[in-house]
Amino acid sequence: MLAPTSPLVIQRRIAWLLVGTALGALVLAGRLFYLQVVRHGELSRLALEQRLRPLPVDPRRGTIVDRNGNKLAISVSADAVYAIPSEVEDPAATAQALAGVLGMPADEIEERLRSRQAAVWIARRLDTETARRVRALRLPGIGLVERPQRVYPNGSLAAQVLGITGIDNQGLEGLEFYYEAHLRGVPGRVEAERDAAGREIPGGISRYVPAQDGHELVLTIDQVIQYRAERELERVVRETQAELGIFIGIDPQTGEILAMAQYPTFDPNRYADYPPELRRNRAIADQFEPGSTFKIVTGAAALEAGVVRPDERFFDPGFVAIGGGRVSCWLPGGHGSQTFVEATENSCNPVFAIIGAQRLGPETFYRFARAFGFGQPLGLDFPGEASGFLPAPGTIQHGELLRWANIGFGQGVAVTPLQLAMAAATIANGGVLMKPHLVKEIRTADGEVLERVRPVALRRVLSPGTAAEFARILRSVVVNGSGTRAEIPGYRVAGKTGTAQVPNPGGGYGDDAMASFVGFAPVDGARLVGLVMIYKLGVQPRWGGLWAAPVFRAIMGDALSYLRVPRREETPPQPGTGEDGRPLALVPNVLFMEAAQAAARLEQASLSVSVEGSGTLVADQIPRGGAQVPQGTRVRLVLDQELPRPSAPEVEVPSVLGKSLAEAAAILAGRGLLLNVEGSGFAVFQSPAPGERVPAGSAVEVRFALQRDGGRP
């Protein structure tokens, strides 16, 4: 039998129980104080965040404008449909009702309506009528909110430069992608207090956090020059049945890109309707064997290194054996005795092979080519810039000297169109390689300048004297050589033609070719550099001087006039008398003329003509243009091939009076006509007049003014 517990023990136990209870209550009180007082703010915020279900509000994406403020990419408001699944009373019926309006599968909509998320998107970028019909349904749990939509008001203009945006208004390609951090802005949100089931709490808290709009990009691109370039590329690509046409226009003093055009192209407003490869900016991302346009690098480097003089004579028998191989001249039998200047005019491959491989040598040649920017990105503010390919000396296992001989005339090296254009700009500006750029300024939505892009000189490549001397040689190529069709009256063009074989993927060369021309004007104090490339022409002949040079002339002539560059007429040299007292005649440059036209031109200059070869086009002439010879001298014309003459049906000219530039361009393009632009604003005059019939492909001159008065100013 247990002994009875004493009253003292019982009292002690009760005391300990009271102490334990008091301590427990104290701990609970402390914990309660900690939660209710110390962490009150934090826990209240967390509780509110659990009840507040945000619906994102997209910012307005920053505008992209050209250098003159013309809008190239804008954001406009468009409605989007969203659902609060917890508030949808009948998901199946709601899905059926929405499917009939939105044109979406009902089962896809129903799946979203049955999701466990607080809010889901059903459809975005609705047009006004569709949004009105959705509102009229008055479906529980279904709402509409405005979301910005990207619009490109000029359609395909500069499409590969601008790029595209996705369904969530995010940049996917081009400048839209590269400058995403500046353009996208900061999202806002709409918040409403909801219960655990997702239902909105009556009288609960609701708040709106506004979005911050994206920054504005001011490009170096000029809308007018860009439009002209795209129009001319479309014309020549169609005429030559080519795969691709590219034009780049650059201010050589600053590195600003005024135009970067490509055809075929696409409309970024409907990019899904086009093959993805059309979105690729091939002027930056692709690399090509340049052909004879690369001779501007070889020639300028040779002059700078002092391994050749302009008046130094070379003899071309039609080929040169070098490095265990043979480099042939494009002219059967060769050009015979010629100076370095004449070899450049003639685009003589053997001479430039000797200069590249022997006079310069691989190490020096490589050093100059790298200095010009080849074999490496130039740092353009654009995604996906390619490096090109320039072999380093000592890395070619077999036939290195022959390889550098080929590089001397532009074969066996890969360049981007941008690299080639910047090399020409280096010669044009006095010998400094500038960093190219596409963006001029970054501004806030209110117009405050956040960043202004300054010209950046990467390095000096040539001395000013060498650059000026080689610019004069390139001027002679246009006056007396293969670049004659690039001449623009009053602007003294300098440049170089190129006709390059296109290498096969598996090695060697096939039948495809690329015609090109790179040049600048005026030759002294150049304001604009231009590069034209026409890739895989489908007609014969495929000479750069025949096809690319006229495109250069058309684009650059308009651009220089638009930029208000003053014309300076040249007085042609007057022939005197020879040592025997006989009067001399100045031989005109008749390259790429048809035989009958060339003969008439020579006879007007008091010269006689002899013809050899078949065809109707003048591929070569002896003596060259610019030579002074006794009157009556016989000029030998070498003919080759026929000029293709596509027939064009006639179309009726529509009226574009009162229309904007974009509207006028679209209307004329729909009839197969081109647009020549003067001024800005709305069309006030056009020639030919509405109703006249002209051949398809003809140009219509349209004058624009700020007043939409529909008549002559």
TrEMBL record:
Xref: InterPro entries: Beta-lactam/transpept (IPR050515), Beta-lactam/transpept-like (IPR012338), PASTA_dom (IPR005543), PBP_dimer (IPR005311), PBP_dimer_sf (IPR036138), PCN-bd_Tpept (IPR001460)
Pfam families: PASTA, PBP_dimer, Transpeptidase
PANTHER family in the record: PEPTIDOGLYCAN D,D-TRANSPEPTIDASE, PEPTIDOGLYCAN D,D-TRANSPEPTIDASE FTSI
UniProt entry keywords in alphabetical sequence: Membrane
Main location per the UniProt record: membrane
Organism: Geochorda subterranea
Domain PASTA: 581-641, 647-706
Family statement: Belongs to the transpeptidase family.
Lineage of the organism: Bacteria, Bacillati, Bacillota, Limnochordia, Limnochordales
CDD domains reported in the protein's UniProt record: PASTA_Pbp2x-like_1, PASTA_Pbp2x-like_2
Compartments where located: Membrane
Top-level taxonomic group: Bacteria
Name of the protein this chain belongs to: Penicillin-binding transpeptidase domain-containing protein
